[in-house]
Amino acid sequence: MTDSIEQIDALARRFFDSIEAGDIDGVSACYADSVEVWHNTDRKTEGKAQNLKVLQGFIGHISGIRYEQRRLSPFQGGFVQQHLLRGRRPDGENVELPAAIICSVVAGKITRLDEYFDSAQVAAFVGR
Questions:
Q1: H or E stretch at 95
Q2: What CATH number does residue 92 fall under?
Q3: How far, CA to CA in Å, does 113 sit from each of 16, 47, 86, 125?
Q4: Which residue has the higher pLDDT, 125 or 89?
């Protein structure tokens, strides 16, 4: 069965809303068990457990996470979202990171996620 554009749109919104809420179980529920998450900054791919661990650390480090200026474009088989990620570092500095995420979706689950960030902006975002 093919996912409808409406189902893919709802999955994408649940996924990003779960990250904003710090809901790792909600993020996990959006992923297929065999999900591959690729980062342009290091060109590495990680699996579900590793990515959830990274997200947990990120959520613990950056407070007030929110996705603004969301431009979500669902399509048959996946979605693209461009957004501005905002939050607050432990030193109190408000930070922002423009990003683009491309996801493949099969049977209502994200099977691949490719994330695109500017590496210099990632370093500033996390305070390196």
A1: strand 94-106
A2: 3.10.450.50
A3: 12, 10, 20, 21
A4: 89
pTM above threshold 0.85 = yes
Alpha-carbon span 30 to 107, nearest angstrom: 11
Q: Record the tokens describing residue 44, joined without a space.
A: 């590495």
What distance in Å separates the CA atoms of residue 116 and residue 21, rounded to the nearest whole number? 22
State the Cα–Cα distance between residues 66 and 121, nearest whole angstrom.
17
Q: Using one digit for the tens of pLDDT, what is the confidence trace for 25-71?
A: 999 999 999 999 999 989 999 999 999 999 999 999 999 999 999 99
Question: Quick one: which of 83, 86, 113 has its CA closest to 99?
Answer: 83
- Write out the residue range of the structural domain in which residue 33 sits: 5-126
Domains held by the chain: number: 1
Under DSSP, the state recorded for 74 is: E
Q: Quick check: helix, strand or coil at residue 115?
A: strand
Written as six digits, the tokens of 60 are 């613990």
Close Cβ partners of 20 (under 8 Å, ≥ 6 residues apart): 65, 66, 67
- Structure confidence at residue 85 (pLDDT): 95
